[in-house]
Write a structure and sequence with these properties.
Elements: H1 2-28, H2 31-34, H3 41-59, H4 72-90, H5 92-97, H6 104-124, H7 127-142, H8 157-164, H9 174-195, H10 198-210, H11 216-229, H12 235-253, H13 257-270, H14 281-289, H15 293-322, H16 334-341, H17 345-357, H18 362-379, H19 389-423, H20 425-437, H21 441-456, H22 461-471, H23 473-478, H24 483-495, H25 505-514, H26 518-528, H27 530-541, H28 551-573, H29 582-595, H30 605-625, H31 628-631
């Protein structure tokens, strides 16, 4: 009996998940309009939210884990949610027209949406996000009684649920629209790629390109995780997907358990900060700032390169310090890997051309690239792995079920945005934070960084960004910081919660593979990823790092940043061509800090170039004086 129930439930989930993906594809090719139906975007969003909630209650139990059967209570909730949101999707036009009169139907829809989304995020996103959104909901009920500048508009419970659970400026606003229209297609693109063997191709390419160099096992992790993570929607899933291969490789190569876990966590987290997809935050950012996706991706490119330069240098220098040998890659060569998997370049070329050359919408670009993957992967395999009709069908199901968490998170973020709007709290928060620090931008950035890390704990990329874009970014913009720099700043520090204890999800996921202490792995990840804590301050102070300025300024500041990152990394590791004394380590770190283009103080700008020259001369001198056996060490880069 249990098996029959489970089979029935799994079949229903598969149908609903497939319907989510098909609905997204049909919406993006404008099928309703072509067939003569005029539908509001909110109708489409209500349909997708309804499917996501039904899947969440059928698939996950009270603790948020997969369950064997639907269960009576969750089954009733799923049926009620489906009925209510399908009605909302069907009659949204009338409901919107009658909203001013507050009909009971909107109260019912709002109450169902608020209660089921809140319970859904508690199950799937955890208590942190649930508590944050819960605090805002409670604030909204008592906003008129809050003393001081945070006082807000009086709201009754009925008015609150009507607004946050129905209004186009709350739950059915930009975050849910971007998630269900654009992000879903990019998740589909990624699932298709890996179902066709793209994950193995990336890992093999990283092995062939870097495995024979010093510390090759860790460089495989850095390169592979960067490739995988740039299209993956989750740092944690990146860790568990690539880490099961790369972490044992690093441990066999000679890296300690702690360093292996930390390197994988940092490399995987960086994928969320790397174009083209950036864990879907790039598309959300473009919508929030009302700028092109091309501008966002261009601004994020140099910081991402500096991030991975730091990590790559660090693993190389650790290998030199600890005499870690190159990795045995079993005869793999880049030419061999490309000969077998060259067809994976085609969908990526289509994606990049569509986004950056043809300037197509992100959703259209993702759909076109998905078609390219299907076409080439039905014709060619990679090491025996290829798309079939069966795996294609499974990809639809995996995409739909994989989107459930994200849809719940962006819906909950819509609650917060709605509350900020209706109570006036958004303006009040900005005013309080800016007034608290006065004209001290560095202090404002420091406080904002801490807030971002705390609020980002335990949350996925898109949820982190949407929440912080509503709560923290306006304060930075009000203080005179460029909007795109402010939004990238909050994204970086929001993502650093993934490697910052006490809730460092990426580091903890890596620790489960290494069987090491999670907190210790988290602190080691902070050391490996030190550059990510500095880069946001750099690109806020120096817009050229975000491609904002002339090419000469961009090239100069990029060169200064590279030298500074290399010098500080050498000082942290304690190795550059030879082991460094304490004095040399301090010297490298000091010169690196002076070289980094942190132009908050006018006098600092005059020190960048002399400090960079001194750092290069010091590094060159140590390289020349290094022991002969170190210079001739095999596999050096």
């Amino acid at each position: 009996m249990t098996t029959a129930r489970t089979t029935w439930r799994d079949g229903l989930i598969a149908v609903l998940a497939t319907a989510m993906v098909l609905a997204c594809i049909l919406w993006n090719i404008e099928a309703p309009t072509r067939l003569g139906f005029a539908l509001l975007t909110q109708q489409y969003m209500a349909f997708q939210l309804g499917l996501a909630l039904v899947i969440a209650y059928l698939k996950f139990d009270f603790r948020g884990e997969d369950k064997a059967g639907a269960g009576l209570i969750d089954g009733v909730i799923a049926a009620a949610v489906f009925g209510v949101l399908m009605y909302a999707a069907y009659d949204f036009v009338w409901l919107l027209r009658e909203q001013a009169y507050r009909p009971w139907q909107i109260t019912m829809i709002g109450a169902v949406v608020v209660v089921t989304v809140m319970e859904g995020i508690r199950r799937r996103a955890g208590w942190m996000l649930f508590s944050i959104v819960g605090v805002f909901l409670i604030y909204a009920l008592f906003a008129d009684k809050v003393p001081g500048r945070l006082i807000g508009k009086e709201l009754s419970p009925v008015r609150l649920v009507q607004y946050v659970g129905f209004d186009p400026n709350a739950v059915f606003s930009t975050p849910l629209a971007v998630g269900t229209i654009i992000v879903l297609l990019f998740v589909f693109f990624g699932k298709l790629l890996f179902a066709a063997g793209g994950g193995a191709f990336f890992t093999d390419l990283a092995m062939a390109a870097t495995g024979r160099s010093r510390g090759g096992s860790a460089k495989i992790s850095v390169v592979g995780s960067a490739l995988f993570g740039s299209i993956s929607g989750s740092a944690v899933s990146n860790v568990v997907t690539t880490g099961v291969v790369t972490i044992p490789l690093m441990q066999r190569g000679g890296y300690s358990k702690r360093d292996a876990g930390a390197i994988e966590a940092v490399a995987s987290t960086g994928g969320q900060l790397t174009p083209p997809i950036m864990g879907a935050a790039a598309f959300l950012m473009a919508e929030f700032l009302d700028i092109s996706y091309f501008t966002v991706a261009g601004a994020a490119l140099i910081p991402a390169l500096l991030y991975y330069l730091s990590v790559f240098l660090q693993v190389d220098l650790i290998a030199g310090r600890d005499r870690i040998a190159p990795t045995d890659v079993e005869g793999l060569t880049v030419r061999q890997v490309l000969a077998e998997g060259w067809h994976f370049i085609i969908p990526f070329a289509v994606l990049l051309f569509a986004l950056f050359w043809w300037r197509m919408d992100p959703a259209d670009s993702a759909l076109l690239s998905a078609v390219a993957i299907v076409a080439v992967s039905f014709l060619r395999s990679y090491r025996g792995q290829r798309l079939t009709l069966s795996t294609l069908g499974r990809t639809f199901v995996d995409t739909g079920t994989g989107m459930v968490d994200l849809i719940l998170v962006v819906a909950a973020a819509g609650f917060v945005i709605g509350i900020l709007n209706i109570t006036g709290l958004g303006f009040a928060l900005t005013l309080v934070l800016v007034d608290a620090v006065g004209s001290n931008v560095i202090l404002l950035l420091g406080i904002s960084a801490v807030i971002c890390i705390i609020l980002g704990m335990g949350m996925p990329t898109s949820g982190v960004y949407v929440l912080l874009a509503a709560l923290v970014a306006p304060s930075l913009v009000e203080a005179g910081i460029e909007p795109i720099a402010a939004h990238l700043f909050i994204l970086y520090f929001g993502m650093m919660s993934m490697i910052t204890p006490p809730v460092a999800l990426a580091a903890f996921a890596a620790a489960t593979i290494t069987k090491d202490d999670p907190l210790g792995t988290g602190f080691a990840a902070m050391r490996v990823g030190w550059a990510a804590f500095m880069l946001p301050f750099i690109f806020v102070a120096t817009p050229a790092i975000l491609m904002n300025g002339g090419w000469g300024a961009i090239a100069l500041n990029l060169a200064l940043a590279c030298v500074g990152v290399a010098a500080i990394t050498a000082g942290i590791v304690g190795f550059w061509a030879q082991r460094l004394s304490a004095l040399l380590r301090i010297g490298f770190v000091a010169l690196g800090l002076l070289t980094l283009p942190l132009g908050f103080l006018p006098a600092a700008e005059t020190l960048h170039i002399p400090a960079a020259i001194a750092a290069v001369l010091l590094a060159g001198g140590l390289r020349i004086k290094a022991p002969k056996e170190t210079k001739s060490e095999p596999g050096r880069i």
